[in-house]
Amino acid sequence: MITTAQDYRQIIQAGESQFVEFKRVAVAPKHLAESLVAFANADGGTALIGVEDDGSISGITGCENHIDELLRAPYVHCVPPVEAQSLTFAIESKTILALHVACSTQVHETIRKTVYLRVGRKNQRLGVNDILRLAYAKGQASYEVQAIEEASLDDLDQALVAEYCTRIGSTGEPCDVFYSRDLLVRREGRFVPTLACLLLFAQKPQRYLPRCGIDFLKFEGTRQLVGQELNIVKREIIERPLPQLIQRAIEVVGMHVREYSRLGPDGLFLTAPEYPPFAWQEAVVNAVAHRDYSITGKAIQVRMFDDRLEVESPGRLPGHVRLDNLVQERFSRNPHIVRALIEFGYMKDIGEGIDRMIIEMERLGLPSPEFSEPDYSFTVVLKNALVKPTVEPAISAEDMLRRYLREYGWITNRDYRQLIGVDRQTAWRQLSRLVERGELVREGTGRYTRYRLAEL
Q1: DSSP 196-255
Q2: Triad 246, 249, 251: Cα angle to 5°
Q3: In 3D, which of 63, 141, 351 has the Cα closest to residue 128?
Q4: What are the extents of the domains in the chain?
Q5: Quick check: 376 pLDDT over 90?
Q6: CA gap 27, 438 in Å, rounded
Q7: C-beta of residue 123 within 8 angstroms of C-beta of residue 31
Q8: Buried b vs exposed e over 404-441: b needs ≥16 C-beta within 10 Å?
Q9: Mean pLDDT, rounded, for 73-95
Q10: pLDDT averaged over the chain?
C-alpha cells in the first residue's frame, strides 16, 4: 500500500482513474459508499477525501465528526461490509484521508440495494443481469447450474451419455446419475437439463448458448491483418459437446503445430515440436473448462501466428484468482463441467496444469507462458523459438544452412525461416541470392519450391 505523501502527490497530479477517485470532505457517507462498493466489485482502488474534482487540495481539517461518519461508511453503508484501510497524510499543510479498498471475492451493494462497478473514472450502476454476471465471475453463483426450461432429455447425445456412464462405472439409469450430479433438476415430474448438462452432452449446445465453441484461426506472419491484406490461411469454427469440442480442437491445432530443427551443442540438428504438446493442450482444455459461459455470443479463440499461439477465453479469472497468484491458487468457475471433463480424462484433479505448462516450455528452451486479461477475457500466449532461435553466435546463417542441407538434403522457404529466424520475404531474397551465386539449386514452383546444395 502507498504510504508516503510524495506518492500521493503524484497520484493526485495524475488525476482520477480506474483506481483513484477524489472526494471533497463534505461528501455524504451514502455517496462515498457508492465508490467503496464500486472499487470492491472491480479491481480495488483508493478514495482520497479532501481533494476536489479538479485535483486541488481542500483538506479535512475541522471536520472531525463528519470524518468519523465517513470512516464508518464501509461498515454501515455497504452490504456486506467493504474491507477498507484508512490513512491520513499531509500535502501543502493540509490533511487528506485515504481509504484503500481491496478487490473483493463477493458482490457488494449499498444499503439502498444498489450495486456499482468501477469502470474507468466512473462508478457504473449495474442492472439485474449485470449483477448476476458479476456474481458468476466472482464465484458467488454458478451460471452452469441454471436450468434451461425449454430443453429436454431428447436434446442429449445418447451415445455420449452412455460413454460417460461407462467411464464413471455407473450401471443405473442415466437420469438418476445426472440428477445426483446436479446436471438435471426436477420440474413438475420431469427432468430439465442444466446449462452444464447441455454444454457437456447436448447434440447442439449452441442452440442454447450461441458461440459456445472454439474459433480456430491460423495467420500467415506475426500480425493479424484486415481488408485486402487479410492473412488468415486457415479457419475452422468448432461447435460440439464439450468433450468432443476439446478432442476436435486438439486434432485441428495439432495438425498445424510444426517441428523445429535446431542446432544442438554437439553440432547436430535436433528436432523438437514448436510448442510442447502438454502446454498448448492444457491451454485449450482450461479455456473450455473455465470460460465464463454467462458471456454469450463470443467463442473461445485459438489464434496461431508464425511466432506464437494465443488462446483467449471469454471472462476474466474467477473468484479470488488473479494474475499474480495464478500459479498458486485454484478456483473453478464451472465445477460441474470440470468434474465431468476430469472423468472424461481431459483434466486432472491435482491442480498441476499451470506449473507443468511453465516447466514444459522451459524444458524446450522456450519462454514461459504469458497470461493477461485484456478487456473482459483471459489470454494465454505461448511463444516459439522463431523470434530467438537457439544458435551459437559463431555460426553464420549460411553455415547453418549448409549443415542443415548436408543432413536433410533439401529445405523449403518455411523451413529456412524457422531455422534462421527471418520473415518470408527476407528468406526468399537470401535463398535467391544463393541460387544466383550457384551455391543452391531451386527445384519446383510455388508452394512446392525447395532448395538443395549445388555441390550435392
Answers
A1: HHHHHHBS-GGGTSTT-SEEEEEESSSS---GGG--EEEEEEE-S-HHHHHHHHHHHHHH
A2: 110
A3: 141
A4: 5-126, 143-207, 214-383, 397-453
A5: no
A6: 82
A7: no
A8: bbeeeebbbbebbbbbbbbeeeebeebbeebeeeebbe
A9: 91
A10: 87
As a whole number, mean pLDDT of residues 236-243 equals 96
CB atoms closer than 10 angstroms to residue 370: 12
* Residue 151 identity (one-letter amino acid): A
For residue 349, the model assigns a pLDDT of: 60
| Confidence at residue 262, expressed as pLDDT on a 0 to 100 scale | 64
pLDDT digits (tens, 9 = 90+) for 246-290: 999 999 999 999 887 665 555 566 678 899 999 999 999 999 999
pTM as predicted: 0.64
pLDDT of residue 4: 66
Q: What are phi and psi of 372, to 5 degrees?
A: -150, 165
**What pLDDT is attached to residue 429?**
85
Tally Cβ neighbours within 10 Å of residue 70. 24
Residue 210: which pLDDT band, with cuts at 50, 70 and 90? Answer: very high
Cα atoms in the 13 Å half-sphere on the side-chain side of 437? 11
Provide the pLDDT for residue 172.
85
**214-383 with 397-453: one CATH topology?**
no
Q: Is 446 exposed, middle or buried (0-12, 13-18, 19+ CB in 10 A)?
A: exposed
DSSP-derived pairing of the beta strands 190-193 and 122-125? unpaired
| Residue 407 pLDDT grade (very low, low, confident, very high; cuts 50, 70, 90) | confident
Query: CATH number of the domain at 214-383, out of 3.40.50.12780, 3.30.565.60, 3.30.1050.10, 3.40.30.10?
Result: 3.30.565.60
H or E element in which residue 262 lies: strand 259-263
Question: What is the C-alpha separation between 184 and 195, in angstroms, rounded?
Answer: 9
Contact (CB, 8 A) for 418 and 216? no
Residue 314 has pLDDT above 90, yes or no: yes
Architecture of the domain delimited by 397-453:
Orthogonal Bundle (1.10)
- For residues 218 and 415, the model is more confident at 218
Rounded CA-CA distance 104/315 in Å is: 17
The topology under which CATH files domain 5-126 is: 3.30.950
Beta strands in 64-121 (DSSP E): 78-79, 84-91, 94-101, 109-110, 116-119
Nearest residue to 90 via CA among 59, 111, 122, 62: 59
